[in-house]
From TrEMBL:
Full protein name: Pirin N-terminal domain-containing protein
Keyword Transmembrane: no
PANTHER family the record matches: QUERCETIN 2,3-DIOXYGENASE
Family of this protein: Belongs to the pirin family.
Gene Ontology MF: a single term: metal ion binding
Binding site for Fe cation: 58, 60, 103, 105
Taxon lineage: Bacteria, Pseudomonadati, Bacteroidota, Flavobacteriia, Flavobacteriales
Record's keyword annotation contains NAD: no
Classification via SUPFAM superfamilies: RmlC-like cupins
Cofactor: Fe cation
Highest taxon, organism lineage: Bacteria
């Protein structure tokens, strides 16, 4: 088993006034040659967006884009006939950019900041027809158990689908509870983000917004030292 811990303070950070963006991997003006991506996981941005502000219409191509709101409400508009859809906490949004898509993402509230994770995963096929989907995932269904929110089209579960053999899941763990994560494949790795709380992964301790890359193993153990909320992104490593 190999473990690479990334503390919250080691991430890239940019303050644009209306947007405070924290980058787990190289993005925009943040460049770190040792943090380009983790296998097929290219982007994990931790964004805080000011009221009524957001990203104006812009393009994407050949990328699987997943957005997970944590607090506040996101408004989405695109050129696939989706006109200002709301995406709220406990919902997940996926967009396969494929041959090309234009979209806007803004804070739907005029008085509350929007906190979200934006994830980009490199697809296993290019040139697909662009698509959009979103789904509500009840928080009680991840209480001390894994809740799959995104997976590949080949997986028969309730998660939203993307064009990659990946698995995104959440779990909220009570203090002193333990959980064993089993990887789909020995050729995969897991990038675990501790959203909030304090946990131990094997011998590594993670505080809020600390992350750890785990690979060359079939499973690993998580223990919650206090109530903790976790995000786990399992992806093919592609020579990691």
């Amino acid at each position: 088993m190999k473990l690479e811990k990334h503390t919250a303070t080691s991430r890239g950070y940019a303050n644009h006034g209306w947007l405070q963006a924290t980058h787990s991997f190289s993005f925009a003006n943040y460049y770190n040659p040792s943090r380009m991506q983790f296998g097929a996981l290219r982007v994990l941005n931790d964004d805080l967006i000011a009221p009524s502000m957001g990203f104006s219409t812009h393009p994407h191509k050949d990328m699987e884009i997943i957005t997970i709101p944590l607090k506040g409400e996101l408004k989405h508009k695109d050129n696939m006939a989706n006109d200002w859809l709301f995406v709220k906490p406990n919902e997940v949004q996926v967009m396969s950019a494929g041959t090309g898509v234009f979209h806007s993402e803004v804070n739907g509230s005029s008085n509350e900041h929007l906190s979200l994770f934006q994830i980009w995963i490199v697809p296993n096929k290019n040139g697909v027809t662009p698509r959009y989907d979103q789904k509500f995932f009840p928080s009680e269904e991840r209480k001390n158990k894994q809740q799959i929110v995104v997976s590949s089209f080949d997986d028969e579960n309730g998660g939203l689908k993307i064009h990659q053999d990946a698995l995104i899941s959440r779990i909220d763990v009570d203090k002193d509870k333990e959980f064993v994560y089993h990887l789909k494949s020995q050729h995969h790795g897991v990038y675990l983000m501790n959203i909030a709380g304090n946990i131990s992964v094997e011998n590594d301790n993670l505080n809020s917004r600390d992350a750890i890359a785990i690979y060359e193993t079939n499973s690993f153990n998580i223990k919650a030292n206090e109530y903790s909320e976790l995000l786990m992104i399992e992806v093919p490593l592609k020579g990691q």
